[in-house]
Please model this.
Amino acid sequence: MSSTVVDAVAVRALARQRHDVIVAEVRRRGVVRVSELATLLGVSDMTIRRDLEMLDEAGMVTKVHGGATLRAERSSDEPGFEAKSLRNMAEKHAIAMAAAAMIAPGSAIGITAGTTTWQLAYHLVDIPHLTVVTNSVRVSDVLYRAPRSDRTVVLTGGDRTPSDALVGPVALATLRTLHLDVVCMGVHGIATQAGFTTPNLQEAETNRAFVDSTQQLMVLADHTKWNVTGLSTIAPLDQAATVISDNALPAAARTALKQMVPQLVLADPQFNEVPAPFETRAADRRRVNG
Model:
């Protein structure tokens, strides 16, 4: 690899790191000034302004005169795939790695659309004898580009949404005939009352068909999804067998999820190691032990 290419990769990596810090600061404080971000990150005001323009275009913050504010989201808001793929990249990578470690060779698995499940696909390419059913164009593309003779990939077909999910009658007809060992599902939001949600009605219906196809629902969601409510509920929290998030998940969220979900796994974005899950709930231990 040439030094020019290496330098370009390094520049993009630094920009992504700045973007993560900027978004985190805006979420923490609600509003932040260009000069404050420049001091925090040790870069020029001009660099911060360019960063804010990119983040505003991606729908992650709202650029205002002299700084940025938190973007107000409605339950029907649905950012596109490219915008979502920029958010919390380290957390998504760690979550995907933890999820892949729980997939057994020879499994028949379902993967719903989303940027975290897209990351999961990269970690599945070396697992042998998988049958993968997905409604994600992006997931299918990752697996197609890393072919294996012992892997089968089924793309459901259907109408394409802003998150590159295939939805509608064709997808539903495919999913309703299947029985999957595990379904790995990405979500827009998680809340105690609303459960797992998405802003897209058709995507919610398709994801419910995925949920109905398995007894082992694995939800992949970084900490920013907590207390976010999309327009349509996919499933209640207690329908998940496992939730995989990251270690920035708030204490209240951990408490609520441990009461309702048999297994909660928290990945650490700073380390490339698979985290140990929390203990299952007492009721589930009794069920497993008879």
